[in-house]
Specification:
mainly alpha, 152 residues, single chain
């Protein structure tokens, strides 16, 4: 059993690093890092708005692990492109609203930094929503123009 784990580890590691270098992997990693920085900034000033950062940090991490381990192809009871699109779109809207509220209230420096970073992560989540929009990804094939039973 130890030998089979040892031989499967390089394939698993290659799959992990391959996804980490893809566009979706880099988007999710940057969302995780920026949400963590925003959480630290909100925690330094006030804990009133930190729940949004915690929820989005956890959701981005869960989606990163699901895509990295290729579980989205094995679990068919959830439509992964739509759920990922809704996650990123809702996060973009909520971060936009929260950042505007935080910047209008004018707090200390870390609170202003969290508001400005929130505006930046709004564009990041918005790009992720645009990139993962399922209807944009569907490709249509041309219909055949010749009759099926030959020329007439």
């Amino acid at each position: 059993m130890a030998d089979s784990e040892r031989y499967s580890a390089p394939g698993c590691w290659a799959a992990c690093t391959t996804f980490g270098r893809s566009r979706k992997g880099l988007l999710l990693l940057s969302e995780i890092v920026v949400c963590l920085v925003i959480l630290i900034c909100f925690s330094a000033s006030t804990s009133a708005y930190s729940s949004l950062s915690v929820v989005e940090l956890v959701l981005a991490t869960v989606f990163y692990v699901i895509y990295m381990c290729d579980w989205h192809t094995k679990m068919h009871f959830i439509h992964w492109p739509w759920s990922d699109f809704l996650r990123s779109f809702i996060a973009a809207v909520l971060y936009l609203v929260t950042s505007i509220v935080v910047l209008v209230e004018r707090g200390n420096g870390s609170r202003i930094a969290a508001g400005v970073l929130g505006l930046g992560v709004t564009f990041l989540f918005g790009y992720d929503a645009y990139f993962t929009f399922p209807l944009r990804q569907q490709r249509h094939t041309a219909a055949p123009t010749d009759p099926a039973d030959g020329p007439v």
